[in-house]
Amino acid sequence: MTRNNGRETVIFSLLGIIPAVWLGLLIAPFVGGGLPEIVSELPKP
Q1: In whole angstroms, what is the distance from residue 5 CA to residue 10 CA?
Q2: Rg of the chain (C-alpha set)
Q3: The 3-state secondary structure of the chain, one letter per residue
């Protein structure tokens, strides 16, 4: 097993962070009440 170097860690971190931020920016204009409104609109089990 090899040790991860810093460059690999940064690359894999960006691959996770960029899509999450992009999705958040797409959803933000449609949510007026913030997180509490999102949670209240989730389907109940």
Answers
A1: 9
A2: 17
A3: CCCCCHHHHHHHHHHHHHHHHHHHHHHHHHCCCCHHHHHHHCCCC
Rounded CA separation 13/40 (Å): 31
CA 42-25-40 angle, to 5 degrees, is 15
For residue 1, the model assigns a pLDDT of 47
The whole-number average pLDDT for the span 3-30 is: 84
Q: Which has the higher per-residue pLDDT, 21 or 44?
A: 21
How long a stretch of residues is the chain?
Answer: 45
Contact residues for 14 (Cβ-Cβ < 8 A; gap 6+)? none
